[in-house]
């Protein structure tokens, strides 16, 4: 497709389970971002990938969160031992030129931890 | 404290009326982005402002950047139901990744 694609669109999981969220960026975009949007908290930066460089993980809230990007394209955000406070919409974005470029966002994955 | 403050948090406007949303930064702004978010549609990029005094328009939406005030305003003229949604301002304030405000929830009443 032409845009950033995220899957699943909705995910309900039990507390303590692991979840994987997937992001397919726009083809050719070297920069990929993960954000989290919690109710009333705005958008929170999680992690940033730029090309083959080591990712900027400074925004990850805990060591239960990890992300990888295979082949400079698809990215997976993994949350281990999910907690209720992990419930949020997880947004992925990609851009062609990096951090100051116009980032295109996916529709997000709504994660609910019960 | 929030680096980007948006006001108001929510706004209910009668269709056809004008409205303004503000985004104020705690730091110098070198670039300011406006996005619109609708449920199920992700974030839609509206415009980017880079220079003080710069003004851009997208259909009936106009945004300005006041560098001295470290503030940007988004103005919608003759609002329509299609304008409803959450408006987010974002800025490049750190090494990587945009910093966003908490958003302004706009409701248009017919």
Describe what this molecule looks like in 3D.
- With 114 residues, chain A is mostly beta strands.
- Chain A is 0% helix and 48% strand.
- In chain A, the strands form two sheets. In chain A, strands 2, 4, 5, 8, 9 and 10 form a six-stranded mixed sheet that branches. Chain A has a four-stranded antiparallel sheet with strand order 1-3-7-6, with no helix packed on it.
- In chain A, a hairpin with a 3-residue loop joins strand 4 (31-38) and strand 5 (42-50).
- Chain A is globular and about 40 Å long.
- In chain B, 0% of the residues lie in helices and 56% in strands.
- The mean pLDDT of chain B is 86.
- Chain B has 110 residues and is mostly beta strands.
- In chain B, the strands form two sheets. In chain B, strands 2, 4, 5, 9, 10 and 11 form a six-stranded mixed sheet that branches. A five-stranded antiparallel sheet of chain B has the order 1-3-8-7-6, with no helix packed on it.
- In chain B, a hairpin with a 4-residue loop joins strand 7 (61-66) and strand 8 (71-76).
- The chains are: A mainly beta (114), B mainly beta (110).
- The A-B interface holds A 3-4, 9, 33, 35, 40-43, 45, 48, 50, 56, 58-59, 91, 93, 99-100, 102-108 and B 2, 31, 33, 35, 40-45, 48, 88, 90, 92, 94-103.
